[in-house]
From TrEMBL:
The keyword NADP applies. Keywords: NADP, Oxidoreductase. The keyword NADP applies. Belongs to the short-chain dehydrogenases/reductases (SDR) family. This is Uncharacterized protein. Pfam families: adh_short. GO terms for molecular function: oxidoreductase activity. InterPro entries: NAD(P)-bd_dom_sf (IPR036291), SDR_fam (IPR002347).
Amino acid sequence: MLSFDSVRRFVKKLGEEVEDLDVALLNAGIAPPKYVVNESTGWEEALQVNILSTALLAILLMPKLKATAAKTGRVAQLTFTGSLGHTFLTSKDLPISEEESLLRKINSPEFFNAQRSYIVIKLLTMYVMRGLIDDFSTNEKGELDVAVNVVCPGYCVTDLGRDHPWYIVLPTKIMQLYCGRSAEEGSRSLVSATLLGEMGHGKFWTNDVFVKPGVLVVSEEGKKLQSKAWKEIMDICRKEIP
């Protein structure tokens, strides 16, 4: 996921080896403690893996998902792993003018802050979901053929923060001991999200309930940010589509 080429190769291999694709759960993600630029693409690594490569993967999987839906007569499912953390963001966390590029701003070393950047990335995941729904989720008859949603598995005991310094890892481990879910428990939410079908289309799922997305998703300001972000993401992905 660190390169667009690896995404293309994966989808090519999938097309050769898998006849039908009913469900795609896109769960890859990193949470780097420091600002690191991906040398092959020029994008900050979390932005590359969690958003740009993931968006490209989703777009490239759409033909297979749609073909399967047409074949089976059932709506296919595309699910992204997100975070409830995006609901805590406000416009103060993402100040941007109409002239600025949203992705370039998030990509800058001046903007990077490990905790904030992670949940901003998760906000972008919501934006990707909305963009895919608008551009890819229906067939030529206007009928829904791929349901798209985002799920938060909750606070799980994983090694996502393995690269963080000890003074962050230690209190995190203590917190995980008392209120963390196992990765297996968290995965149940991921699996349940893939079974929601049309009922979960365009929605945010966590703790086995639908939760209203954050203000920067549902507000007019959020909708403008989503439109800006999706246009920029698509401009990048179009260049990488075979």
